[in-house]
Amino acid sequence: MFNKQLITVNFLVDDLRFYLEINKFSRLADSAEELAARNVCTKNEIDFLKKKAAIISKLFLSSDISSKLQVNISESERDLIWSLSSKGLLNRLLYHRAKVAIFPILIHFWKRFCNWKVMKSFQVSAMEKEPTLTAVKACSGPSETYSP
């Protein structure tokens, strides 16, 4: 449970991938808006954004793998994204609420993961102490065990 929301731990990796993809989408949408403001935006950029939104939906929001929803957002958030994308909205607002929902989950569990990783590595290093090598004194003269 996180903020009264049931979190599926197995989805956390997908949450991170989803967040990274929607962040890329937001940056691309911002670029397309800038180009459109300067009358330079082409149909290719718009088509690319539509395809990217469709791929994100297919991978994370309506997956072929069991449990259609592969990330820790609510069904209503998913429906909102579908609704906005069906209306042709291709800017950062499309995934804004999903970002706001996913980011705190990622931060919370990232902190727990890092603490677990540190403690695990600390326990391993304490258990597997390597024997120390005794320093060998180097001498510049001929060896006492070998004489020419």
TrEMBL record:
SUPFAM superfamilies membership: Regulator of G-protein signaling, RGS
Protein name, UniProt field: Regulator of G-protein signaling protein-like
Source organism (scientific name): Callipepla squamata (Scaled quail)
